[in-house]
Description:
heterodimer, A: about 260 residues, alpha/beta, Rossmann fold, nine-stranded mixed β-sheet, two-stranded antiparallel ribbon, 13 strands, about 30% strand, B: about 300 residues, seven-stranded parallel β-sheet, 8 helices
Amino acid sequence: MKILVCIKQVPDMESKFKVDTAGTWYEKTDLAWRMNEYDEYAVEQAIQLKEQVKDADLTVLSVGGNQVKETMKKALAMGCDRGAHIEDDSSSDKEPFEIAGIIGEYAKDKSFDLIFTGMQSQDRGSAQVGILVAEQLDMSAVSTVVDFSYSDGTVNVKRELEGGVKACITAKTPLVVTCQLGLNTPRYPTLPNIMKAKKKELLSLPVEDLLKVEPRQETVKVYFPEKKGGGLVLEGDAAELADKLIQVLKEKTAVLA
Amino acid sequence: MKIVLVAEYRDGKLLGSYGELIDFADKMGGESVMFLVGNDTDLPKYDGVVYLADAENFGEYNPDAHKKLIVDLVGKEQADMVVFCHSSYGWDLAPRVAFALKAAQVSEIVEIADGLPVTPVCNAKLRRTVKVKTPQSVVTLQSGAFGLTEEPAGSPVIEKIEGNGEGRIEFTGYEEAESGGVDLSKAQIIVSAGRGVGKPENVEMIANLAKALGGEYGASRPVVDSEWVEHNRQVGTTGQTVSPKLYVACGISGAIQHLAGMKKSEFIVAVNTDRDAPIAEAADVFVVADLKEFVPLLTEKIQSL
């Protein structure tokens, strides 16, 4: 079985963001970078599947500059077999259709049985790339998966719908699965596995060889939303803050009466 | 401009979110038709043509078949835009339709500013204005960002669509949400734990504050996914929707899915170290503090009142 998992490196969402000089994305300096949270579940599920079927080869793919290799190494340390790094310093300027085009071009003659990815990225959040890859490769796709099992070419998944309801789905491989938070418990790489991962193949491929599509949209500007006034902001010493908040609750609500 | 609005149907019922699609079409100033895989016993209140495909034949989740129906309809109507809700149905189907139409897709629109769609970036900390370069476009709308001020009204002209309902994916049924346990929707006071609690042991301080206030404790999704708090205490789109007299969000950044579940609370207090956290938008009081220090202090003071 051949498995592909596609991951993205994103900033920690707790970071202090600034708009970049072009005004079309966030400034990339002074940020802590990590694996897109949704993709961690994708990597874990791909590894669990590999462990289940035994005879499997699992490739992790990421598009971006050299720094994304750090995140790819985590995926390798978790248990992926090899890495395909699509080297692209301007990946953040590309829209989902272009990113999907690059991945599709990479995957088209490799006969992957299953492709996993997160259902969306935490920064751009389009929720498009996984499904667009499937469309390009003429594979079927199921999104927003919170439960996954595989047996003999058949995949049973549950999709998460609104209100906590789940839809039960049966599909055949080849299949693209986009993963929702909570699908599994992503493992932490162990020290021996981190050491082993250093010896795994991590091949860089120039994006020029794989980008065959034109962008269909562009970012006009990125900006901070206007803060909706009205909210009272309390700052200072924690004990004083507690007193202040109690005062506010007494004045504005009846809950302490 | 000609717009196709894609309404949703779940477990034999039309979803009310179609009103958001109508409001969006009004704001775009376009002429619209509606598409629905559903049933003629539950139809949208809408003054226009509803193209209705029977859910018995086409299934409630059957992306291959639904995609084909929508693409055919776009051709027939010579539509410029297809509009979905940014929902589990919409974000799954929209890219498939966009791909087939060779159209750009703009996801999770929160508003139209100067004629251009605006979408959230980085957990809604930033916003992005987008320009589409293709003649046709596919868009999804953030839940609650658009909506009619009044109940939808009107009676549609129904055009039934027949066709092939085959697809590669088999939908075998729904699994209901876990029930039982705590009904947070009835709680008057809720204190919720977010990722900022840091570790499972700290959930107790949230529960203690809730107890001191005479309320219940809840949690945001990451805390439930980490299994620090059971799912029946989750507040948000995929958990419970609550509207207590007081909601205290501790260490919750305020992802849209969480906000959707609690923004109707009468009074909202947020405790967070990150002043840029989107929860600030919903909060009546924003306490800039480390909850691990602040919450126990507050609990103690409330207990001694």
